Predict the structure of Putative transcriptional regulator.
Amino acid sequence: MSSFCLLALLGEIFLGRFTNQGWTMPPTDVRERVLAAAVEILRTQGLAGLTQPRVAKAAGVSQSHLTYYFPTRADLTRAVLETAVEGQIANLGTAMSEATDPPERLSRLAQALTNAQNTRVLVSLVLAADSDPAFRDLYQRLVTAMRERATGMLAGAGLEPTPAQVALLHALGTGLAVMSAALGPEAGQAVNANVLQELFRLLAADAPAGAPPTA
């Protein structure tokens, strides 16, 4: 057996799990398990908690296995933030698509902005992008998705959204999410609902004459 084949076999053994049927758990499963554990740590502890030893322990793998897939903390952070951002986008789309009318959309948005775990992901992404410009594309991807949802909310309320209005709703939502993390979910949701209702009232009042009224 060649040295290459021997090394490959050893890799299969040490990265796998023995059963009566042989070695299972292909490398992609290990990688996905590590990512799932890391995303959970990011959502509950923030970027400061995302250390390689902590992730390895949570995923039930050795640190050498973790570094096989993610050699540096930057590699791990990048992969985790990519996974978390995709999850944030999917969750936001689901929440908004299930709402049937503008008031319900506002209520769902006010509630979504109180999710401290989502806010930790957002803050972690901001901190990562601030410390390393290589992460800014991920932040821009999330911004684009959030502004698409904001455009849909404004249009659904009978407005003709301008880029400035979309940016305003996005910026306000970001600020409310951060504030809610400090206030707690109950107080945060009440503030969010009042502020969002006032924003839409002001936007409707500023709409050109003849524009359809908001619901």
